[in-house]
Write a structure and sequence with these properties.
- With 301 residues, the chain is α+β, with helices and mostly antiparallel strands.
- The chain is built from 8 helices and 12 strands.
- A hairpin with a 2-residue loop joins strand 2 and strand 3.
- The longest helix has 15 residues.
- The two termini are 36 Å apart.
Length: 301
């Protein structure tokens, strides 16, 4: 017998914690003041069989589907599709009007997930970013590593050693004449950053670039990498990548992950031509959304 339940407390959700990514398991404690998790679990013969986990921001009518999972032994019998249908119905009762989701291509579950999205009314998948993973072994012979020596006046240093004065100068210069890409401002990525491998580029006494990293499930994510525009064509970003890769063993990481915006054509071209041959995974993140259908005059009341 199959049943579906709305989970709203840590005790009830405890047996489902392994059914989402480690980064999201803490949401099942239901004690965050910043986000509101929505969780739907399914039982098969009274044993946990699957979980759909979403999150909403306070005072909004939108949600993000973080994960949907069915126990491997129970797959291919319609549980995932019904779990999605029940989850969407539950979201309606919570007055959720729009849901978004993102996922990676090339996984064993990708085709099944896309079939479920299609059957339940989500938009067609849209590519958002390229995703590249390289191991220290696969990347060691890449010709774009160890390519450049540090020119005179250049210094690569740990991000943690950037001084208070340098941080303030960086803020002020960008306020006076914006030169940092809005989605690559380093101060926006400092939460839980990996201190051993996060580095800055100092040129003639000024901070002009950075690569902030995060350790995620045993991998090192190159989260925020940027150099000043006039230095980009000189390959200065590779100086930072060289240093990060060299530091990875000291941080206990053997696999690096890069996400590259499609809007950055030069980086996309570089990844396809120079990174893909040395990758252990080369794919993309895709995004979908669904607009919930409410009878006229119901939504928002």
């Amino acid at each position: 017998m199959r049943t579906f339940i709305q989970l709203s407390d840590a005790k009830a959700a405890a047996q489902y914690r392994s059914m989402t990514f480690p980064a999201f398991q803490g949401l099942l404690n239901f004690n965050s003041a910043d986000v509101a998790p929505l969780a739907v679990g399914t039982l098969q013969n009274e044993a946990p069989a699957g979980l759909a986990l979403l999150v909403t921001s306070p005072n909004t009518s939108e949600a993000e589907l973080l994960s949907i999972f069915v126990a491997p032994r129970l797959r291919r019998n319609g549980i995932a599709l019904e779990l999605m249908q029940r989850t969407l119905a539950y979201c309606k009762t919570q007055n959720i009007q729009k849901i978004s989701a993102s996922y990676m291509s090339g996984q064993d579950s990708t085709q099944t997930l896309e079939n479920i999205f299609n059957k339940t009314g989500w938009t067609a998948p849209q590519t958002r970013m390229l995703v590249v993973r390289c191991s220290l072994d696969s990347i060691k012979s890449a010709p774009w590593l160890n390519r450049y020596a540090l020119p005179k006046g250049y210094e690569v240093l740990p991000w943690a050693q950037v001084t208070t004065a340098e941080r303030e100068a960086l803020r002020v210069s960008n306020l006076e004449k914006p030169w940092i890409a809005p989605d690559l401002v380093p101060f926006d990525f400092e939460e839980n950053y990996e201190p051993v491998t996060s580095v800055a580029l100092r040129v003639n006494g000024a901070i002009v670039g950075w690569c902030l990293t995060h350790a995620v499930e045993g991998m090192l994510r190159f989260t925020c990498a940027f150099v000043r525009k006039d230095l980009q064509r000189l390959g200065r970003l590779l100086l930072l990548w060289d240093e990060v890769v060299a530091r990875m063993p000291h941080a206990g990481c053997t696999v690096g992950m890069w996400t590259i915006r499609l809007s950055s054509k030069s980086m996309v071209d570089f990844a396809r031509k120079h990174m893909q041959p040395y990758s252990i995974y080369f794919g993309e993140t895709r995004g979908v959304t669904i607009q919930m259908a409410f009878p006229e005059g119901i939504a928002g009341q």
